[in-house]
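Run log // design_07
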């Protein structure tokens, strides 16, 4: 195994409670923006109108409702010399880039795939293959760590190993021993 690709939301970025469904009733527009079917700016304009806040204020509000999975990221830093790391996020480019910047994720992840930017989203197999390509590895060289069973199943169908993420302790107990022998 040469690389690990992570699901972003629920694995790298943990939700503090507020999520888009309760904060914005037009979930179709949100999903369309996340998948690149409509320009992301359309969603930000609608959110600005809905909240009477600027995009920057909205980004900060959404960022404040997420927290970095610090134990996982620290663990990955300790393995950086042995493995390549990437993530796939079904998310908005502006928000994801804000998290990347605030949390200094470029220090850990070599490939950061954002659905709205790529106009692809999980569970489309192409987005998993894109992550492999950007990391310079084959699917057989990868472990995918996902928060949804169907995402893990897609990874497995491509020849990757797969792990369904519950929490860091479970990950550490089940996956870390495999990484120690690499």
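design_07 sequence
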């Amino acid at each position: 195994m040469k690389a690990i690709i992570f699901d972003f939301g629920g694995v790298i970025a943990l939700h503090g409670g507020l999520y888009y469904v309760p904060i914005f009733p037009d979930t179709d527009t949100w999903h369309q923006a996340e998948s690149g079917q409509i320009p992301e700016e359309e969603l930000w304009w609608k959110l600005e109108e809905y909240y009477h806040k600027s995009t920057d204020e909205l980004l900060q509000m959404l960022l404040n409702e997420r927290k970095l999975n610090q134990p996982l990221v620290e663990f990955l830093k300790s393995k950086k010399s042995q493995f390549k790391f990437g993530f796939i996020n079904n998310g908005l480019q502006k928000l994801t880039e804000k998290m990347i910047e605030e949390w200094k994720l470029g220090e850990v992840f070599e490939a950061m795939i954002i659905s709205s930017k790529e106009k692809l989203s999980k569970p489309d197999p192409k987005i998993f293959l894109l992550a492999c390509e950007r990391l310079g590895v084959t699917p057989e060289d990868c472990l995918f760590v996902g928060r949804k069973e169907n995402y893990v199943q897609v990874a497995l169908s491509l020849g990757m190993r797969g792990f369904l993420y519950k929490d860091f302790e479970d990950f550490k107990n089940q996956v870390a021993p495999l990484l120690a022998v690499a």
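Strands lie at 3-7, 13-15, 66-68, 84-89, 111-114, 142-146, 161-164.
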